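DM from R.C. (forwarded with permission)

"hey, sorry to bug you on a friday — could you get me a structure for this? deadline for the figure draft is monday and I only need the backbone to look sensible"
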Amino acid sequence: MDVKDANGNILNEGDTVKLTKDLKLKGTSTTIKRGTTVKNIRLTDHADEIDCRFNKMNIILRTEFVKK
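My reply, with the result:
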């Protein structure tokens, strides 16, 4: 299963990605700003989602909002 970012680049375990859009986290008052770097991503069972850690929180991001 190939997991691709917003530009069509293939993502792998442990990659570093940047956000392409401001994202509001559900259930919190936190907003992750565009251009924020997220390190050491993990792939999930879904081709359109990645798992990562941001500010000591585990979050799942849609691949359409990140670029390698």
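R.C.: lifesaver. The first strand starts at residue 17 and ends at 19.
me: no worries. The chain has one domain: 17-67.
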